[in-house]
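S1.2 Input.
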Amino acid sequence: MNIDTITEVNSKTLPRLNLGKNLVYVGAGEQTESIVFWLELQASRAKSYLADENNVTSVPQHAGYLGVIHPTTVGQDAWQTYRIDAPADITRITYGGRFYNRVAKSHIDLRYSVDGGKTWTQSWTISDIAEPYDVIHYETVAMPAGVRSVLLKYVMNSPAAGPSACSIYAVRMEADHAPVDASFRPMEVSFEWSEMQKDRSLKKRHHTQLVEKIPATYSIDVGGDDHPVMESMSVGLVGSHPASYGYSDGIDVGGEKFVGSWVTYGTNRAVGKSYAVSVPSETNWDAGDPDGKKLTDGVVGPPYSGGVSYQTGALWSAGKNPVITVDLGASIGCASFGLNIHGYELKDALKGEVADVIEVLVSDNGTDFTSAGFLRTDMRWKDLPVNHMWTDEETMCGFTARLIPPKPVSAHFVRFRTETKRFLCVTEIEVLDAIGFEPFDLRVALPDK
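S1.3 Output.
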């Protein structure tokens, strides 16, 4: 029998490889198997799973805003008891549900027994009648050695009748037990990825490792010009992966472990300073800068393009090629020059899609300008500091494009000369007096380290 389980998980929670050398750890962790009861309570459909029941009414249909089982007779205990039998020692139980307790002197209890019901231990009770009348609660209890059967009891008592007084919406029980077969069998671990080349083309590769004992560690080397695009990671018994072991192309590209960087920004000396633009901003999508202050107000635009994003800056259509000149008030050492930009059509810098060209020129007298270089708009994942806040989609459509010279450049006036290939929105001018990058190894600490 084969059982295929598909679980949709956020990509950021999944294993991934970096450019260079990657250390892979294979371990089994705590070995447990589980038995779960998650029952439908309406219309008495849980009766076949009950070990015992007393004084309980089950409504024909779940109303949604009230519990579905409740005491039949007021002032008397009402309960449902479930029995879980395991093929090996039970190590812990987790049980609870969703509860409705509204009337004074009502209560709902969670109890368990490991001796067939001779004695009971109460794990939790709710007698609080404060709003909202909707409490989700679970208890986890470690079991003594040798227990293979446990009774789980849900008890209700109320001086008033009906689901609007004291009731239970839903119950869920789980018993973790030692594995029936704890022996280890060799397994295969396979990673598949695409390596980003200098021209941004992708080269597919995969690596399959035979793991004959655990814990185990091994290395996977990833080539290319940037972090890879992950395709899959799979684990199976021997024979589950048809390819041979090792790299799909038989080549170990080598390389050192990738270590990211932590960036520290100095002061933006352009904030509050005056500037001039050679072409007035257009007003599409509520964009515009009529007061000539928006680009040095200290507020950058969003990391996305579209919607209200254009309201945050000045906007020029393709071919308008505005020149923006900011007066810093005095000559200072400039460690980094930048413009926060986005536009229409939406272009992703991490895919090399931004075609706008922005040259930086500097001057100490406002007349004679010298080129310092061009803002970088062709970005790679490996260049992003670990403290850069990514979008959920891992795109870079609204960002600060920077030129970081080898050493600070003196400037009183800074000019940004643009070639706009689309609607370009500039939201902020940035001239930093300092910027620093320090190695920062953002990693998962392995269990054996």
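S1.4 Remarks. The chain has no helices and 28 strands.
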